[in-house]
């Protein structure tokens, strides 16, 4: 309502102290507080009376309709909630229930087939990695034997020369 800062309130208090005097100042502040409280109460009463009159005239329905039109996300969420309620009242013996059960069974079969295929692919990749590791180990062994043979020949040649 009024935008008074701390410094402004301090100046008003000092002026009131000088004009009214220290003896009557608490009485003045009490009366000002009562007046402000009554003014706020009257403002609240007026606002509530206006809101009640608007509700009685049907403005609340129009306001709700406008808010719903202005907020499509809430409308979609409400529609989703209605569908969720319908799903909660689901009858498994109906055609829809039978179709849903068949779809769930098909989804489980697809999931199982996918898991089996992934396991086969992992096993195949592991076998290929093992074959590659064996080939690399064999090549390393052959290279080691070649180096050892060369060292043996050089050692024999050194012994022969000595």
Automatic annotation (TrEMBL):
GO terms for molecular function: protein transmembrane transporter activity. Pfam families: TatA_B_E. Residues 102-134 have a biased composition (Basic and acidic residues). It is a single-pass membrane protein. GO terms for cellular component: TAT protein transport complex. Residues 88-134 are annotated as: Disordered. One of its GO terms (biological process) is protein transport by the Tat complex. The Tat system comprises two distinct complexes: a TatABC complex, containing multiple copies of TatA, TatB and TatC subunits, and a separate TatA complex, containing only TatA subunits. Substrates initially bind to the TatABC complex, which probably triggers association of the separate TatA complex to form the active translocon. Belongs to the TatB family. Part of the twin-arginine translocation (Tat) system that transports large folded proteins containing a characteristic twin-arginine motif in their signal peptide across membranes. Together with TatC, TatB is part of a receptor directly interacting with Tat signal peptides. TatB may form an oligomeric binding site that transiently accommodates folded Tat precursor proteins before their translocation. This is Sec-independent protein translocase protein TatB. It comes from Cognatishimia activa.
């Amino acid at each position: 309502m009024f935008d008074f800062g701390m410094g402004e309130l301090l100046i008003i208090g000092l002026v009131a102290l000088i004009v009214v005097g220290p003896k009557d100042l608490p009485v003045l502040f009490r009366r000002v507080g009562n007046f402000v409280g009554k003014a706020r109460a009257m403002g609240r009463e007026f606002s509530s009376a206006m809101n009640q009159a608007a509700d009685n005239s049907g403005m609340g329905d129009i306001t709700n309709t406008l808010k719903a039109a202005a907020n499509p996300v809430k409308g979609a969420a409400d529609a989703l909630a209605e569908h969720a309620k319908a799903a909660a009242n689901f009858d498994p013996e109906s055609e829809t229930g039978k179709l849903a059960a068949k779809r769930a069974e098909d989804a489980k079969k697809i999931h199982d087939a996918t898991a089996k295929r992934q396991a086969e692919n992992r096993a195949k990749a592991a076998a290929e990695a093992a074959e590659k590791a064996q080939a690399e180990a064999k090549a390393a062994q052959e290279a080691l034997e070649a180096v050892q043979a060369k060292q043996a020949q050089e050692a024999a040649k050194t012994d022969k020369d000595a």
